[in-house]
Amino acid sequence: DKSYSHILTETRGKVGLITLNRPKALNALCGDLFVEVNEALRNYDTNDNIGAVVITGSEKAFAAGADIKEMKDKAFIETYKNNFLGHWAEMTEIKKPILAAVNGYALGGGCELAMMCDIIYAGEKAVFGQPEIKLGVIPGAGGTQRLVKAVGKSKAMEMILTGSVNLNATEALSLGLVSKVVPAAELVDETVKTAEKIASMGQPSVQMAKEAVNKSFEVPLSAGLRWERILFQALFGTADQKEGMAAFVEKRKANFTNQ
Ligand code: CO8
Fold first, then answer.
1. Rounded to an integer, what distance in angstroms lies between the CA atom of residue 42 and that of residue 180?
2. What residues in the chain have per-residue pLDDT under 50?
3. Is 152 an active-site residue?
């Protein structure tokens, strides 16, 4: 794997693992870090040997937000003209599933990064929060939109308007923001295990499933259902559908070729 300044990358079987690595700044998400995350994601997305990606941080911090030191002196016109931090959204173009393994702080942009992933697993000491209001700003990378859908309006408002109501791992689990809580030391392995399972499925169906689920956030039900059906029908043009169904009937394990 290529070497980067702010992240580490490694492949584990069919899984690409990205570790945010700015320990002194609690993985604060400076602009360059996100450029690197996007590049690593794009490389995994086009690598036929990879079926899913895991993003993690350290045991203390997944990411403590956008880099406050980097943005504190910016003027509006500069942020607007250069579409400041707009490149974060590039990761939503990635077709392969992305899993977040969140240990420690996932605050502000860190919480938003986790929510841009497809599945979130949390370590027992994880903390999710949107403290931007305390800095005189608001969430800028999806917090006001994705958090509402994840935890409902009242809790999202409480978190975003006070900046100090955070969710621990158990609360995040009960509200549906994360789908599993595991001991911190086991979190990455556990997340990679799920990613491996996903990576062992046929890629066309995995990617279309991700696309269809994400449609549900974008369009009315009737359009989402139509989209789903077309993708479902499209899969009958793949070898994996023939293989998957033949394997069931022949009572054997499917051997997907991602075709
Ligand atoms: N940015 C820059 N540096 C940070 C950040 C950050 N977000 N968070 C922590 N650091 C630095 C600290 O400044 C400190 O550096 P130094 O040693 O040079 O003083 C170092 O990391 C360690 O931090 P602490 O000493 O504060 O560690 P503690 O264990 O005492 O506290 C906390 C940990 C509670 C996580 C604390 O660091 C904290 O509150 N951090 C800021 C959290 C925050 O406000 N995050 C939101 C940032 S704003 C944002 O994310 C907006 C996103 C918008 C995206 C828009 C995209 C389009």
1. 27
2. none
3. no
CB 119 within 8 A of CB 209: no
**Residue 109 annotated as catalytic:** yes
pLDDT of residue 2: 77
> Nearest-CA neighbor of 56 among 2, 126, 3?
126
Q: Probe ligand 1: pick from 30, 32, 68, max atoms within 8 Å of CB? A: 68
- This prediction has a pTM of 0.97
Average pLDDT score over the chain: 97
Buried b (16+ CB within 10 A) or exposed e, 4-21: bebbebeeeebbbbbbbb
8 Å CB contact between 111 and 130? yes
Its ipTM equals 0.97
Q: Residues 109, 142, 163, 202: which is the catalytic one?
A: 109
* Catalytic status, residue 244: no
Query: Taking CB atoms and a 6 Å cutoff, what residues make up the pocket around ligand 1?
Result: 25-26, 28, 64-69, 85, 88, 105, 107-109, 131-132, 135, 140-141
Which residue's alpha carbon is at the smallest distance from atom 20 of ligand 1? 25
Q: For residue range 97-136, what is the model confidence (pLDDT) as tens digits?
A: 999 999 999 999 999 999 999 999 999 999 999 999 999 9
